[in-house]
Amino acid sequence: MTLPSGKAKMLKIYVGETEKFGNKSLYHAILLKLKENGLAGVTVSRGVESYGAANRIRTTRILDLSADLPMIIEAVDTSETIDRVLPFISEMVKKGLIITFDVDVIKQG
Amino acid sequence: MTLPSGKAKMLKIYVGETEKFGNKSLYHAILLKLKENGLAGVTVSRGVESYGAANRIRTTRILDLSADLPMIIEAVDTSETIDRVLPFISEMVKKGLIITFDVDVIKQG
Amino acid sequence: MTLPSGKAKMLKIYVGETEKFGNKSLYHAILLKLKENGLAGVTVSRGVESYGAANRIRTTRILDLSADLPMIIEAVDTSETIDRVLPFISEMVKKGLIITFDVDVIKQG
Fold first, then answer.
1. Secondary structure letter of residue B4 according to DSSP
2. A62 pLDDT higher than 80
3. pTM of this prediction?
4. According to the model, what pLDDT value does residue B67 have?
5. Is residue C109 part of a domain?
6. Residue B1 falls within a domain, yes or no?
7. The domain containing residue C67 runs over which residues?
8. Do the beta carbons of residue A104 and residue C99 sit within 8 Å?
9. Is A70 contained in some domain?
10. Which one of C7, C12, C26, C45 would you mutate to disrupt binding with B, by most B Cβ within 10 Å of its Cβ?
11. Which residues face B6 on adjacent strands?
12. Are B16 and B96 in contact (CB under 8 A)?
């Protein structure tokens, strides 16, 4: 699970906090799926406001406990490994955004 | 508001939580402005500590309820759309950082 | 401490919240070190879930107050300045991930 220094790819996924995959939260299901596929690391963050495909603004600004906040998933790995997981991640994410971009790994340990 | 797969651009903006634009929070005014201009999606996150142009460290580490925490705004769209909004976003952001970088859209839906 | 518009580099670092550097939090020690070295700005965010080198899943999902949450540090500066700080940042980060990638600075002020 150690990533060599040099050229690599960032996989970044934006989904709603309340989206489900089976009986799990989609963002957590994605983390588990990436782990199962040997990705070197995954980090999940929660945003405070967003709008997207569904075109509604989701926010914590008003006291709406049912707000569907944005979850941001980041994973860095080799280009080959990221390309290998994209088909089933695309399949899991019905509503949301999946992007990749080139990065340089300086250190992973 | 659907974004095709392929080459695209990330617009990322860092501003202080307490910055205002008219009587609105600047970060929320930026989200509304990007939405009004048809951007496919925008996500706002709140950081916990930062320093920047003003050179002060802002933090949640001490119990300072008036801390001006960093807000991070991310939007992905075509290069043309991002370039079109940059002039007025630059005008709105007096203190802060605006960057762009190339990304590949794998899926947006 | 002002950054000119144009080509620049993002330095992004992922470490655990409980990691220490001397008697400080590692993420805060990194922010201070980058500030001391004149970086134009640094933003720190806290994630909600991750796994990495240590291969454990860290999460806020269960009520585990001792959870070692992921901290994400972002700094944008010229390529030269980022390259100059990488050696000692690599030395500070024993467990974690350090990446860089190219960005365009539209405005910093």
1. P
2. no
3. 0.93
4. 67
5. no
6. no
7. 6-104
8. yes
9. yes
10. C45
11. B105
12. yes
Of residues A52, A40, A38, A45, the one with CA closest to residue A12: A45
Q: What is the mean pLDDT of residues A40-49?
A: 94
**Cβ contact (<8 Å) for A50 and B40?**
no
- What are the backbone dihedrals phi and psi of residue B49, each rounded to the nearest 5 degrees, phi first? -165, 145
The CATH number for C74's domain is: 3.30.70.120
Joined together, the tokens standing for residue A17 give 């906090």
User: Whole-angstrom Cα distance, residue C102 to residue C9?
Assistant: 5
Q: C37-69 pLDDT, tens per residue?
A: 999 999 999 999 998 865 566 666 555 545 689
Instruction: Please indicate whether, in this complex, the C-beta atoms of C43 and B49 are within 8 angstroms of each other.
Output: yes
Once rounded to an integer, what is the mean pLDDT over residues A37-45?
94
Q: Report the number of distinct structural domains present in chain C.
A: 1
Q: How many residues does chain A have?
A: 109
Task: Report yes or no on A15 lying in a domain.
Answer: yes
- Helices C79-92 and C26-36 cross at an angle (nearest 10°) of 150
Contact (CB, 8 A) for C42 and B51: yes
Tokens representing B30 are: 């930026």
